[in-house]
Write a structure and sequence with these properties.
Layout lengths: L2 E6 L2 E6 L4 H7 L7 E5 L2 E3 L14 E6 L5
């Protein structure tokens, strides 16, 4: 199966081509509750995780909500 290079939180990763953001979240055992994912500095709404297909060179950033004051 063909793979593509992406960057996740600044670290290079190889993933299978044609994967969605949700599939990558699952494969990498990433937290999804209280988190926001951005692809190429654009926040991807949770409703689009299942349909947002990653492309060669995409940069994914994970932001976790922090409670406090």
């Amino acid at each position: 199966m063909e793979s593509i290079a992406i960057v996740f939180n600044g670290l290079p990763q190889q993933v299978a081509a044609g994967k969605t953001l949700q599939q990558i979240i699952n494969e990498l055992s990433l937290p999804s509750q209280g988190c926001v994912f951005a692809v190429n500095n654009q926040v991807v709404p949770r409703s689009e995780w299942q349909i947002r297909v990653l492309c060669e060179g995409d940069s994914i950033s994970l932001f976790q909500a922090i409670a406090g004051g």
